[in-house]
Amino acid sequence: MKFIYFRFKNFKGIEDEKLDLSKTPESNIFTLVGLNESGKTTILEAINYFKYKPEKLDVLELKEYEIQDIHTLIPINKRDNFNDKITIEAGIELDDEDILKIKKEFEQKNLIIDKLGTKFTYTQIYHFEKSKHIKERDQSLWTYDITGRKKNGKKINKLENSDALIANNFITKNLPSILYFPNFLFEFPERIYLNNETQNEKDLFYQKIIQDTLDSLENDLNINDHLIFRIVSQDANDKRNLTSLIGKLQKKLSDVIFNKWNQIFNKHLSNKEIILYTGVDSIGTYIEFNIKDDVDTYRISERSLGFRWFFVYILLTQFRTYRKENKNAFYLFDEPASNLHPSAQIELLKSFEKLSKVIYTTHSQYLINPKWLESTFVIKNEAIDYENEADYNSKNTNIKISKYREFAVKYPNQSNYFQPILEVLDYKPSNLELVPKVIITEGKNDFYTLNYFKEIVKNKYIINIIPGTSASNLETLISLYLGWGSKFIVILDDDKQGNEQKKRYINIFGEIVKDSIFTLREIDKNWDKYELEDIISEEDKNIIIDKVYTESKASNKTILNRSIQELYLNNVFPSLSKTTLQNFNILFKFLEGRLNDLS
């Protein structure tokens, strides 16, 4: 069972938007990017406001987790007299196992199901008059497509709502748990009480976490039989068995937590381990988590803020994957790990792949994975002109959700909204002195194009490529290579700019560079007035763009270059025409030959 979309109306700054999670069925990780105050957090809050949640995190007392006053949801520009509805709608899709279980539940009620649709819709409607919430008019609706008959009946009809509620009860009980983490800054309890009869909701929550750690040992263990019973028992065998189990738990926790710590923070903490204490006090049986560092032992609460954040994240997410029931969690992370250094953010991003489903917001390029761009959304607040924030007008507040690719095609010049993505796709130069012979391009777009097609033509040409910053700004690179006495070739477009810059560089550096700078026409006379992209056939340009922007009919230089960059980083190489491949073979053969002639 999974969520396939959410739709929000009049929720804070969202007028009417749909977050579609169904067009990328392969993806379980969704990224929200956008500028400050664009509405990314509002999207997460709206999802978290969905009422059917088998599990909640309110016991953790996370700051900004819950919306305390429903009136704060009224759109700012309508607060003076709001006479409308706030709506949250969720689309849910069942899998084959869900359908089989629901049919069995119907059979137990003497109902034979003829048709059970796989998609259901749940809608929450909150009514307001004169900006006041009218609670008694609120509605919780669901739509279904179920037909069947009584066990001994013959006539097939659409089920009455009273009968269809059998399916409703199953779905609401087994929905993915929406777990919203606006942060991980909360106090981990010094003692977790294990008794079932406890009325403390926080203990009940953490008991499930303890069970997750038991399940990670994969030995059919449970809290009652293997912890509580042995903790209170006076039998020597029970105590030995408890000691054995605690030892295994400590090792598992230490391995998972500190191995992950070493990966993320690139620090080797071989002398640290998790220590578990158990006992009985006036409240009941309990377990304590501690950290042993050489000879000293500390409570979790006594460790640094960074470690506490990390410890809780691992405990609540990585061990959750072992849960046997309701393990289908749907994690919402708001700016996760924004306080960690770049390499730690990159490693943390990898940990998302172990989770069942994630939506997260970010401003950081280190929390962008190029392989997840198909499931990346750009969030834009149309009320804010970031060039002139003083002209902010709350009446125009309207948060828009766009798929990244569609936004990039429609607004290619508004790249500030998805700048972290461009920074990930951008070139990171290495030490130039380690490259003795190079091809220097006008910029990063040509750099990616040449490297990409070098792979497509089976990488048989031995050339190294580095990017300049523009056709008119290559003096520094040329000076460096001349100073090192290293050989280089500069390749320029055969447009007005390219020809003018070639003459300028020869005037600056003299005849010594005359045989090292070439326009495309000098490589092949058929490439008169060509830019590098022009040696790709129009048909192949469309093939390349379609591989990335499948729903786009637009074809321009910006979209083509972004498509090439992404395909190159993800090692995707479509079949292209002989004409294009021949053009690049001509180009690479010329460049390799000229470099060898200069040696």
Automatic annotation (TrEMBL):
Extract the PANTHER family matched here.
ATP/GTP PHOSPHATASE, ATP_GTP PHOSPHATASE
Superkingdom of the source species: Bacteria
Q: What name has this protein been given in UniProt?
A: AAA family ATPase
Check the record and name the InterPro entries matching this protein. Answer: AAA_GajA/Old/RecF-like, Bact_Antivir_Def_Nuclease, P-loop_NTPase
The record's listing under Pfam families reads:
AAA_15
Q: Where is the Endonuclease GajA/Old nuclease/RecF-like AAA domain?
A: 1-368
Instruction: Tell me which stretches of the chain form a coiled coil.
Output: none
